[in-house]
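Progress report, Aim 2. The chain analyzed during this reporting quarter is listed below.
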Amino acid sequence: MYDQIGCGGSTRFPDKMGDGEFWIPEMFMAELDNLKGYLGIKEFDLLGQSWGGMLGGQYAIEKQPVGLRKLVISDSPSDMVVWVQVANRLREGLPRDVRETLDRCEKDGTTDTEEYEKAVMQFYYRHVCRINPFPEELQQCIDAVKVDHTVYETMNGPSEFYVIGTLKHWSIIEGLKKVTAKTVPGGMLIMNGYYDEAQDETCAPFFTEPSCRTKWVRYALSGHCPMLEETEKYVRDLGTFLTSE
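Predicted structure tokens for the chain:
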């Protein structure tokens, strides 16, 4: 695991807020190559969760990286337009007053308010992580975004479902046809939760479009974080995939 540029212990660039020419997938892919080169990694398996899976898919398509053995896509969309369509459908399941608050704040441009944040959390408790209160690992991530939301705000937007950033029209559905048995000789594993904001239709192209071997596992009790919600099953399935021939 590593902290990407702009988060965790890696270098932050708060002055790059809104810089759509700096915060691009190509930069993050180059950083992954830098990391591999520095550590001397020649053969590797790659797991990406949420945005990480989006990046992992694009990395396999565009880089066709030598040494990539197996690719794991966990809770990730293949197309952000579909992601927003699904999110809007899930929003309809929220209480009416919560929906009205979300709609009003987004219309008025007040998504930086506590009112909006509280309404957003109602969605998150249903579809991001169904453990309440959130596990410490997830809460630390959310708190970190509050401190520095440069990357998230620029590339995504104010929330998981209000996507107005540079990734708004991002899609790799067609590109996934370039992921072959040569690209990923060990195959691909796709994972998501039953209640996941990454619903089946957002993940399906990862399963149907590549010509390499693919396997799909869905977690019946989980939202967007099955690694935290159904940890034992998640780790078992991941380990089985990584150690199988």
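The chain has ten helices and four strands. The chain has a mean pLDDT of 97. These observations will guide the mutagenesis work planned for the next reporting period.
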